[in-house]
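User: I'm writing a short report section on ligand binding and want a predicted complex to refer to. Could you take this sequence and biotin and write out the structure as tokens? A short remark afterwards would be nice.
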Amino acid sequence: MSLVIHRLRRVDSTQAEARRLVESGRAEAGHVFVADEQTEGRGRFGRTWLSPVGGLYATFVVPRRPMLPIASGLAVLRALERFGVKAGLKWPNDLIVDGKKLAGILIETAGEVALIGIGVNLVEAPLEMAFSVRATGGGVRRGDLIVAIGEELERGAASEESLRAYREGLLTLGRAVRVTVEGGETIEGTAVDVDAEGRLLVETRAGVRKISSGECVHLRS
Ligand code: BTN
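Assistant: Sure. The structure tokens for the complex follow:
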């Protein structure tokens, strides 16, 4: 399927713009919103996503389907790999290099579609705890990476193969983790697996917890 690309110079957030157009019937699955710069870029958990010129800020409008957090993390991992950029995943879908964040994904829904918001630090790491593609020694043109992500998102239907590939790229497995779930509960233990629903299995003193969503921190290397 070919993408319909909406190119924006400066926008509050590509998520917000995609939602406005979807809700007014002017965009649908297959559309992607790309901005040079965002003034109110949003991250997970209500955080700000710093969005200076030079990064990749895009929202892909896709049909809603199960396992999107896993499929989208894998899609960005594989798309970067095509250009020689080797990253790893932190559950569910942060892209990590050297323990620092290279890219992040925010998934929201709007009626029948999902909005997959992807931010990749291409040339600049706007925070201490961030990494950039340039710092990996690699380089990729924004437009090429968007096309590659679009292709990988289409390919990544939920399957045993994609779950296996996701697990292979998941740096979280085997690590001591702390996961903060909705409501503020924190769960500490060892991340032992991801199940067929994309849940993180954490072995704690009280047994194995299956976590559907939350913020995961790697505690030790
Ligand atoms: C995260 O790791 O917290 C998710 C970051 C997602 C950032 C992207 S940039 C494009 C899209 N528009 C936004 O406002 N946020 C997402």
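A remark for your report: The radius of gyration is 17 Å. Residues 183 and 214 are 10 Å apart (CA to CA).
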